[in-house]
Amino acid sequence: MAAEPVLAQRIALVSGGNRGLGFEVSRQLAAQGITVLLGARHSLRGEQAARTLRREGGVVVPVSLDVTSAQDVAELAARIQGEFGRLDILINNAGAYFDIDDQPSSVSLDLVRQALETNLLGAWRLTEAMLPLMQRHGYGRIVNVSSGCGAIASEGSDCPAYRVSKAALNSHTRMLAAELAGSGILINAVCPGWVATDMGGHGGRPVAEGAAGIVWAATLPSRPSISGGFFRDRQRIDW
């Protein structure tokens, strides 16, 4: 394993970074001196978000990123290689399709496919593309933003598309952690809890609290090596 780069040398990519949880994660990473590539599907919204964080003193670069687009992902990987030569942190935050009014017996399968395409395959696609940038230096931190309702033991029948997509993301987290064991690249799933965002709605806790656990997983030390876990507020939770 390579030595851990100092915070000011680390490059982080946050998908879905222009609002909500992704925006706050970008803010907290930038506040630690990490260069943040703020991924957004809409360039103007990404630039506006990045400009706000730059006013706070962070080094934040907006990048065009739709995780469902293989072309977007490939072009971004090439850009990061050309401009930075490395990637140290990947936050798979982009997510959607919180189908709270659906039931598993009647949910549209088209909706399920869309949820899987963003929440599972989007993270999978982005991770595969960015891994070589970490493997080259023997250092990396990957955080899959998941949900407690994606745990196998989670009770409830609402949000079936969302639940299944997050359960599958958890499974992918564990498999990839096993593959990358000893490589210097750690991957973990984090549940931010119910936070007050556009997707979470009103009544949740402050977004900064949910983001803090993600940032913790993104900056884990190499010793002890923590990988393949599922966490909320830095505490392990059941799969």
Could you name the CATH class?
Answer: Alpha Beta
Domain module count? 1
* Helix-and-strand structural type: alpha/beta
Radius of gyration: 17 Å
Question: According to CATH, what is the topology?
Answer: Rossmann fold
Mean pLDDT: 92
- Major sheet details: 8 strands, mixed
> Strand order, biggest sheet?
3-2-1-4-5-6-7-8
Shape: globular
- Please identify which CATH superfamily we are dealing with: NAD(P)-binding Rossmann-like Domain
Short description:
The chain is an alpha/beta fold and 239 residues long. It has helices spanning 20-31, 43-55, 70-83, 109-135, 160-179, 207-218; strands at 11-14, 35-40, 60-64, 89-92, 140-145, 185-190, 230-232, 235-236.
Topology at a glance:
Layout: E1 11-14, H1 20-31, E2 35-40, H2 43-55, E3 60-64, H3 70-83, E4 89-92, H4 109-135, E5 140-145, H5 160-179, E6 185-190, H6 207-218, E7 230-232, E8 235-236
Parallel strand pairs: 1-2, 1-4, 2-3, 4-5, 5-6, 6-7
Antiparallel strand pairs: 7-8
Helix pairs in contact: 1-6, 3-4, 4-5
